[in-house]
Records
---
Amino acid sequence: MSSSSAGAAAAGKPPGGGHGGHGDSDERHSHNPHLAHHFDDIETQNHASRLGMWLFLGTEVLLFAGLFLGYSVYRHLYHETFRFASHTLNLTLGTINTVVLISSSLTVALAHHAVTKGKNRLALGLLGFTILCALAFLVIKGFEYNHKFEEGALPGKWFHFEEMAGMPGANMFFTVYFLATGLHAFHVIVGMAILIWVAKRLARGDFSTDYNLPVELGGLYWHLVDLVWIFLFPLLYLI
Amino acid sequence: MSQSASSALAEVPYRAPVYQEINYLNADSGVMSWLKTLDHKRIGIMYLGSVLVAFLLGGIFAMIVRFELSTPEPTFIGANAYNRMFTLHGMVMIFLFMIPAIPGVFGNFVLPLMLGAKDVAFPRLNLLSLYVYWTGAAIVLFGVITGGADSGWTFYAPYSTTTPMTLFPVLLGVFILGFSSILTGLNFIVTIHTLRAPGITWMKMPLFVWALYATSIIQVLATPVIGLTTLLVGIEKVAGFGLFDPGRGGDPVLMQHMFWFYSHPAVYIMVLPAMGVISEAIATFARKNLFGYKMIAYSSLGIAFVGFFAWGHHMFVSGQSAFDGGAFAVVSMLVGVFTAIKVFNWVGTLYRGSIQVTTPFVYVCGFLFFVVFGGMTGIAVATVSLDVHWHDTYFVVAHFHFIMVGAVIMAFLAALHYWFPKMFGKTYHEGWGMVAASFIVLGFNATFIPQFLLGNAGMPRRYYMYPERFTALNVASTAGSTLLAFGFIIILIYLVYALVNGDVAGDNPWDSKGYEWMTSSPPIKENFEEIPNYEQEPHTYREPGEEVEHVVI
Amino acid sequence: MNEIMRTILWLPEQASTFARAVDQLHYFVITVTMLSSVGVGLLAFGFFFKYRQRRLRASTPEVVPSVRFEIAVISVPLLFFLAWFVQGYRDFVWYSTPPKDTMDVYVMGKKWMWKFAYPDGPNAVGTLHVPANRPVRLLMTSRDVIHSFFVPDFRIKMDVLPGRYTETWFEATKPGRYQVLCAEYCGTWHSQMWGEVVVMPPAEFDDWMTKQRAGALVDRVDTGGDDGSNFHGTLVEYGKRVAMGQGCLKCHSLDGSQHIGPTWLDLYHRTETLDTGEQIVADEGYLTDSMIDPRAKIVKGYQPVMPTYRGKLSAPQAAALVEFIKSLRSDNLDNVPSKEAIYEPVRQ
Amino acid sequence: MAENKKHIEEHGDGHEGGHGAGRYILIWAALLVFTITTVVTGRMDLGSANLPLAMVIATIKATLVVLFFMHMWEAEGILKLVFSVSLVFVAVLLLGVFGDILTRSTAALPSAANGTAIYMGADGTGHPSSPEH
């Protein structure tokens, strides 16, 4: 969806510009195929891409802020219910997922590190591991969702969660739960797509010690996914 | 090459303006060359076409609303059709026209020219933002045609989540349009940070660039929140689970908080670029340095920042606590101060200038009056006790139309006329320009001043039928809107004529010192044959080495 | 002076204690606003004549503001604005803090009428009777969407939200009839969601109240045996109530969405294909038959699961249901607005 | 960090200054430790301390990720500014809304005891849609 295209475009911009139709019109810059015609030097261009990516991450933070706001307000209003409801979630699966995401964050950081050291094969392996982690996260999440569906915790007209019948705001907790984890899972999918794209280019030999910005930016996006989860996990599963 | 760089004084012999034969318009040909272009100027032109179509649609909806209101009883459409019309008017005007209008069109076109850059930082992202805009617009229009939306542009829950109409496509469209806005803002921020030509320091940036910078910050930070809000309302409408259903313990006021967290700063997304346009035009037509450049620049940032703390003044009587109302009210007063600073500085710029009376300048004058009246009535409605009476009445409608139409559209028209030669290398007919400007300024006053009085008299907004006692003022307003519409039609005709058959403008018809005029008009595809020398500040009309009187007031 | 300004500004009557106070600030704010915008306009206009271009590319002096000027343009507007804020907020706090000894009235907003209930008195739809010179507190809630209770002559307005109570208060100063408007957009007939506040001299009001109570006891109608005779709304409204009471809406939606049974939206005069392949038009006859003998003619794609309502629905109820279904058109989303005041008997 | 700064200036994109893969693994280990801590303490009954404790741990974890995995530690000032500003506005959003929620009268909160009872259901069916009626 548009979020994915925006993310991919932001991450993919710098090399894209290099392949752009009129990048070759300027003789002076022909030495670096990754330099777009409207930038003077590659440092400025990389700086621009990084700045663009961080701005995009800023928008993501604000996007999730809305959900965190919803959580905070309803937690304040129905704190007993929220406390109770968080204990109905599967802590083991949640913890495993946290470990999976943190580890994938590590491997994606290491992958970028490896590329800068010229170890492209190692980097590819690490990226592959990251993507597998993302997949594992989604599968585990899928099991959790399925269990919650069966219990009748899907909010709205489907809500018939017996354990919490009669508790005011029970429905609100699961609304926040499904919306926040759903939006997060959507970001996991997008991040996975970006990482697959980066891995494909890495395998093709596009990146080197000199030029590896997409690996770095794809990694940044993935770290953000991790970051959101770091907050979602205690709020939803623990307290 | 820049012509005005060395030719300065009056004794330079007159040269007939020449048309830049090779330019960005004819560099490539064919529809696909436009659709696949990465050139910021062509993207700007495509935005211009798109927002004008949106403006036309929004205008038609507005006229339907106004004509329906010419009698207190049903006039020619039904209640539900009327409710759809004002919803469409609001949605189309705000999301499809106002927000992309000045940044998308003129920001895209002149920002790189003003910075001495060959393009914006991410040209592909720029094109993507246009495509996202088209997608979002198409979905909104699809939703409008198939399902209709009758919730008002504010789509307050729980009305929006329970209306029988299929609101979802419209909400989805708004969500997608948000991405277009974010991409534009992100692109501009990065461009301003990284692509300023050598010599253009922060304190030498043209004020339009400062305004766009402040605007972009708001676009990037506020838009995600409205995106999420539309998503939540949409999901609640379709699937029944969202955060705002009172039947399940949800809080509709929370929805209003989230909505206005974006939508109040969004007002500044619309107004700040307009203020930037005025700063540029007023310096050019007064042939004078801007009085208080730094104050104008910083007040743009100030508005962008403080604008984020003021959203609750839309909710004084919504069930929000009185404490929060007071907190938001006092911050709202600060926004007024920043605007006041700008107004004083614009008027100060005219002092001892050499004023060239042109169509864009007439719009600038209109802007000055409207922004003061619109802005101060804004302060008036932010005065909590007064807002109790005015909230959701025509007073508020009139107030924000003074800002939206009176300020933003005046600035849009000023920009359109001011940069028309820059964009197309042609000039329009000044005489017709003046005629149309008179229609618009008069028609505008005739439309919206009665609405202030209607609000005082207590007519709530979004009213299909109204008590008899409001008839006279409504008829006056409808009559005024006809004049206004007539003015826009004249503009459309003479600008289209100018496009086809206008006189050659030359590179710098206004003799402006603005940086964007330091290249040919229309510019070549690469913007500059050679990056100009930016030694002089953008709004300085003193020639290098020339001694002028220095006045401090 | 007050009267002149009020007339120029088209303000309605000042019929509450709050109205007078608010209007004073209103005059001040609007006068300053008009003076300053006209002032700026005239100044710009004056400069425009005085300094118009006399020579092409004339050179102009460089005029810059002094620090003193900058401080002045910041502080003068700020002082005005803050003064307005202080006065405005004081009035607002007054307005949002009802005094101790108020007379309470419960207000229920629903599409598209106002319903008023006195704690120990009658219920009324559309008209609120209050005494003059006595503070009245309104405890308001909504049954459906957000409404807003607005009395221009009192200068009061407060949103009415579903699921909670909001409050407002006023002290009317002169007897008379004042219009109540809904100010928060609430759907098709938002513009007709009107009511009336009747302000009576205190003594007269007490009389009225006593009479209402006495009369109510005599005419008291119990809610059992709901055959429509004690329902004071339109037939359509009655039909809606029946539909809710009989549980029809558990299977039939009103908004066009799919459910166990066909939606009622636009059902009337819709051409339906039966499971036998036969086409019928859903007219009054078919609708009534379907309530009494639901399984005789099943629309294609639906299961024959509806129980019969033979004996459960009286004739007026069935007729009201049909009327209700007829009113559900996507181009006319609900029944007509209620304009007249309708009194409901006391419920105790 | 001084050398790192210098390194960046020389190479622009050289974020890999004086440290190696070891640092990442160290951070990862710290993150795991914090995760275990928060899981263990999260389900203990610490009264009102649970929420602040969990938030403090989450903030520390997030800070580690941002500073080291995302290289914020050695990033240009503008990137730091961009990210901090976005956090500031998250705070603004929470502040404005909680300024309302915390000071509203109880009857005006959606959790008012009779809230759901008086609400007839948004669809007008008269059946409160919540299971908790």
---
Amino acid sequence: MRDLLSALFALFIFPGFGFLFACALAFQWIDRQVTARLQGRVGPPWFQPLADFIKLMAKEDVLPHGAHSWACAALPMVSLAAVLTAAMYVPVGRRAASAFEGDLIVVLFLLSLPALAYFLAGWLSASVFSVVGGNRALLQYFSYEVPFLMALGGPAILCSSWSVSSIVVQQSEAMWMVFVQPVGFLLAFVGLIGKLKRSPFDIPKAKSEIVAGPLTEFSGRKLALWHLVIHVQTVVGVFLLTDVFLGGGGIGIGIELGFLSVLVFGAKALLILLALSIAGALYTRLRIDQLVSLGWRVLAPLALAQMLVTIWMGA
Amino acid sequence: MKLDALLEALQEAFPFKELNPRPVPVGETFITLPPDCLHRAVGLLVERFDLRHLSAITGEDVGDEIVLLYHFWDNQGLTLRTALRRAEARIATVTDLIPGAALYEREVSEMLGVTFEGHPGPQVLLLPDDWDDEPPSYPLRQRQEEDS
Amino acid sequence: MSRMTIPIGPQHPALKEPVAFLLTVEGERIVESALRIGYVHRGIERIFQRRTYVQSVHLAERVCGICSHVHSTAYCQGVEALLGLEVPPRGLYVRTLLCELERVHSHLLWLGVLASNLGFETIFMYTWRDREIVLDIMEELSGGRVAHAVNVIGGVRVDVAPDQVRSILAQLDELGRQVEAFVGVIEHERTFQARTRGVGYLSADEIRRYCVVGPVARASGVDVDLRRDAPYAVYDRLDFRVVVAHEGDVWARTMVRILETVESLSLCRQLLVGLPDGPLVSRAPRRVPSGEVVSRCEAPRGELLYYVRSDGSDRPARVKVRTPTLTTLITLPKQLQDVNTADAFTVLSGVDLCIACADR
Amino acid sequence: MGNIIHRIVRWARRRSPWVLHFNSGGCNGCDIEIVDLLTPRYDVERVGILKEASPRHADILLCTGPVTRQTRDRLRRIYEQMPAPKWVVAVGTCSCSGGIFRDGYNVLGGIDQVLPVDMYVPGCPCRPEAVIEGLVQLLEQVE
């Protein structure tokens, strides 16, 4: 009985859906606040993401004529399920409840599902802007995904484990991966910006060009879910980087922190989020061809070199 | 711009026409030409004097005539004034000499019902596509005020 | 690759005003573009004929909300020439001061819009924040942030008090520092350069063929500026440099505009320091003797032309407005040919379209 | 229970008004003041206002300028594309009544000739403060 309760608690409250939902809202608020402050503005109040979410949920849900109605409804659900499931394997401070050997692969796979759903949403929602946005999303996916995977593969090879939890554990006994593989961390960070479609890689949803990209025709509940997907994805992505490169909830050699480790973890995650916000405020959005060439001419070769060095070091 | 040489050349090209050069504020010279000479005159300005900047074409309905003013500029203003008969408001386009005149001519054409012969794309510029065509009504023609 | 048609506008986030572009694209490359304007056509030239000369000043300001003052300047200047009216020097100084402040405001606004269309929101926020300084100055002088109603036929209706001169000079110094910072960003920010260099190229010959004016012409090496070439108001008494660049792309247009802003700030200082004493306005009669006039001004976007004909009554018989945007519009199909879809918005912002001006 | 949900939704609606801006024939004056709302001095994000790009995402349609014959149909279509509940705010004198352009041959008059207007914000051009005040008053009436 107790096991069941604690499993349910883990699934729905911490570190499950409830926690992720809260984190998604909090991250969104922090992101908007930091961006606003960098731009000399005040920024939204703390409850803003919640108000936005409730308002969208309570709005009329219309789809244009010619849009694929059940697909448009299913896509955000599937994406949300994927990112929420991915979160189950990413330890927050402590060992993830459902960790197993190879869960890193599962997480990476689940995190790329929304990109494909996003592309499909663009194609199926009967708007030119959506189609262009969908195409761009797919092109962008092919540019960042390979370097991102290879960058995360580095620590896994060094730790001889493809489980996020055991990579975290191993870092608590050695140096953090960010010091061992700084290039890898940078690549993963840039890849994450691409994955989350954040400025300066917000090419698929470039407001001033293609309105809102694949989401142009979505409204009400579906839009709310899409926003939630993007924000939970941000949370999971940031947590993943924290775990793999910043040693999760640990602070150094062999000290056990207990519950405090969650706070340490939170602090590290916030640092990454901060870096994401700052990077977004500092650069001009690239063109899709510029991103593709950046991905394949700079990021991928760097990731490959890093991979080879890692394998050589490990051998 | 050498105004004297220019006037001389124009007078030479159209020996029997009265050019009536007159100064108009601010720093502008008006020259009057008959409509059939205008295209040649513009050609002369462009080719001999490199006067390629056409600032605007003003069209005005003055009753029985429609007056067209071609405002040129090269450190000082030069305006070619020509008057078309209202009943048959047609004139040769100057877009072959000055591509930049295309929009000016389209505007004059829809506002005053002047046909620019040889214009590459004489669609409406500012008016809506469903602007009432039957009978043709042109916003800047005078008669409309009397009607409404 | 299959072709697709992307309709841009009349409602589109990159456009503050309704105008429609139909882009035919292959992949991300534009193969054809069609332009439709006229959504903001209000028939102003017709409305002019129903207003008196005095009312028309107000109407001229409403042709365009961004460059409202230069419109009324061109109009008033024309009517004053018809009347043979001499504007007192102090009036001309204040009028010119507003013209230059407006240029600063317009260029900063434009830089923000360009940055926003490039996805560089931070620069958009900063330029618009600093633009508020200009708006404050204009509001202090005239009571209006955007429409000023400063010009009247025969002069201006607002004065600059000595303590205002001091405070405005201080505000201009602050703004000058910010503008210098923007110059640095434009010159050195690499992603900004990657998006603007080589985009929307126009050669000097194309500029001449299409009769393009203003900063777009100057960015392609065509050295025209009515303030120097045909000085009106008090520009012949001021010391300034006409900024010319030769690259002919959006980056050059950005450089020209931002350096022009620096020049304009210096002009404002000269105007404030050299402000002569005396009356602001000469009394103008209500009826204007018959005659015609062509009045040209250098608006923030280039040569602005007003043609006014009077038939001796208290209403103008004909007012023709030719705004600079009309000349740049015609180059857009050429500039959009074969560019990337994303760059289309850089091109559109780069020429600084003012649709309200073009449609009238 | 229904009452509580109703109150929560009303709270959310009042605090998250996303606006769409459409110029149906104005002179730019009000438009730049509306864009100004987003920038540091006015920063309407602090009261939850976001300027959205797609009509599908918007709650409030901010209209500027009189309605011209070309924009009439487009204005209607944008309004139809917006999901309910939705509101229309006419910003600027000419969008309230046609203003100085009302006797132009291509001008139909104010926004209310085409759409039901919920709030009129006069001014030529409107100050940003006036637009904020108009929005706030509109939101107070939201049920």
